[in-house]
Amino acid sequence: TTQYNYILTSRPEPAVTLITLNRPKALNALCSPLFAELNQALREADDDSSVSAIVLTGSDRAFAAGADIKEMKDLEFSEVYKTRFLEDWAEMTRIRKPIIAAVSGYALGGGCELALMCDIILASPTAKFGQPEINLGTIPGGGGSQRLAHIVGKSRTMEMVLTGRMISAQEASDWGIVSRVVKEGDGEVVKEAIAVGKEIASKSQISVQAGKEVVNAAYELTLAEGLRFERRIFHGLFATKDQKEGMSAFAQKRKPNFVNE
Ligand code: CAA
């Protein structure tokens, strides 16, 4: 496996890759080389047919405290424009396998945006989400204003973006940013995220890929287009062995044996 400087990768379960942001002295601030490594590790997991789900986490203190302020503070418009600064962050939205964020501590600015690019977010009770860019004389640049608006609506997004207020794990759960808050304890949220990954790994991986694709379409298409897209993909799955196996197994009252074809 590849050696990285800013992240750690492991296989806590045969079908689950765990990626841990590992820049503790900077609270996992997302400098460019860190994001390049993250994208590479995600691509490797996506290309590895033995991997079914990816868990992304940070430390107990910080999932990630944002883009690296020290790296970007002196940049000029011409540089960020010409080099498409931060545009490579969106590469992770092209990963086909589910990415589960396990968030403890600070998820601020780019760290919040990173979590929002994942497919499922689980939070520990210590998690804090925020878009504090306004305090730096700027605004979110990694998709926060748009993705939050889709999830929590205008008023809450405006409050977060215009005041920089951090919200608690409980608020994030009440608002639908995270799917749930797990029980307290070091490592609990990662353990739970790995369990979700393992559960997903037990399904037909074709259906999992299709499920992720159609849910994501809901954020880009009109309702009519999205419904048509879902129906067509649903129809398409009748061409798979796993649909025949899954439904036969149900009728025969046995467990399905999926072959991912
Ligand atoms: N970039 C660079 N370094 C950072 C950082 C960041 N986003 N966040 C924290 N660090 C560094 C600190 O500078 C400090 O380094 P030194 O020890 O060398 O001084 C170290 O991490 C520890 O941080 P603190 O001493 O500040 O820790 P704390 O517990 O007192 O405070 C915190 C924690 C409230 C998260 C505070 O660090 C903080 O406010 N961080 C910045 C949060 C922020 O503004 N994020 C948005 C960044 S902009 C962005 O993300 C743009 C975008 O949309 C893409």
From TrEMBL:
Keyword annotations from UniProtKB, A to Z: Fatty acid metabolism, Lipid metabolism, Lyase
Entries under InterPro entries matching the protein: ClpP/crotonase-like_dom_sf, Enoyl-CoA_hyd/isom_CS, Enoyl-CoA_hydra/iso, Enoyl-CoA_hydra_C
GO molecular function (one): enoyl-CoA hydratase activity
GO biological process: fatty acid beta-oxidation
Highest taxon of source: Eukaryota
GO CC annotations on file: mitochondrion
CDD domains: crotonase-like (cd06558)
UniProt entry tagged with the keyword S-adenosyl-L-methionine: no
Entry EC number(s): 4.2.1.17
A Pfam family that the UniProt record links to this protein: ECH_1
Residues passing through the membrane, by range: none
Family as reported in the entry's similarity comment: Belongs to the enoyl-CoA hydratase/isomerase family.
PANTHER family (UniProt xref): ENOYL-COA HYDRATASE, MITOCHONDRIAL, ENOYL-COA HYDRATASE-RELATED
Name assigned to this protein: Probable enoyl-CoA hydratase, mitochondrial
